[in-house]
Amino acid sequence: MRIIGGTAKGRRLQTPPKSMGKRTGRPVIRPTADRAREALFSIVGSEVEDAWVLDLFAGTGALGLEALSRGARSVVFVDRNSQSIKLIQKNIELCGFSDKSSVMKRDLAKSLSFLEKLLGDRDFSLIFVDPPYRKGLSLSMIKELSSGALLASSGLVIIEDEVDVELPRTMGLLTLVDKRQYGDTGFWLYRAGKIDQQ
Fold it and tell me: What is the DSSP letter of 31?
């Protein structure tokens, strides 16, 4: 796995061993594939430049690090898995982005309220949400983010899950503006604020 574009292009990232969850038989950490990540950032385009980014269920940190490589101002990485936290910290060092990164170990299945308390008035213009597939966490994250408390006006929320998962077209301040499929992976792009439907 590597950084696809920007200042750290070609930098290889540390990846987890292929350890499987006892109950699911699926990988404990499931990095977004390079091709899917490349396609996703082609869609996001220049919106990543100078952006405040939040990477939830960050795993290896690949999405947030790709954003930093492409000009994001800062990324907050959040995951509950100790192995993930170590991988993220190592990959931040490998890419030379320590001064633009913060790493938090938290259980996101409980609530995002801790972020509002810790980060105060900071608004994120780009939020990645890449939870374990088919756990209902994508929907719960949309519900929490739909208040707009963590989002800049017209901010973008990108959800990754299995492509056949059902997610709402609108919720609170969020409106689905695009959906893409790459193999079994789906990306849902939600925009904060009122969307002109003309």
Answer: P
Residues facing 174 on adjacent strands: 171, 192
Q: Give the separation between CA 181 and CA 187, rounded to whole angstroms.
A: 6
Asked whether residue 21 is domain-assigned, the answer is: no
% pLDDT > 90, the chain? 63
Residue 54 backbone phi and psi in degrees, to 5: -120, 125
- CA 157/CA 18 separation, integer angstroms: 29
Helix (H) or strand (E) holding 77: strand 74-79
The count of domains in the chain is: 1
Residue 102, beta-bridge partner list: 76
Q: Find all residues with CB under 8 Å of 93, minimum gap 6, and list them.
A: none
Query: What are the residues facing 2 on neighbouring strands?
Result: 12
pLDDT in tens, 124-167: 999 999 998 878 899 999 999 998 889 998 999 999 999 989 99
User: Average of pLDDT values for 50-55?
Assistant: 96
For the chain, the first-to-last Cα distance in angstroms comes to 40
Is the pLDDT assigned to residue 76 strictly greater than 90? yes
Could you tell me the CATH number of the domain that includes residue 129?
3.40.50.150
Cα distance between residue 114 and residue 65, in whole Å: 23
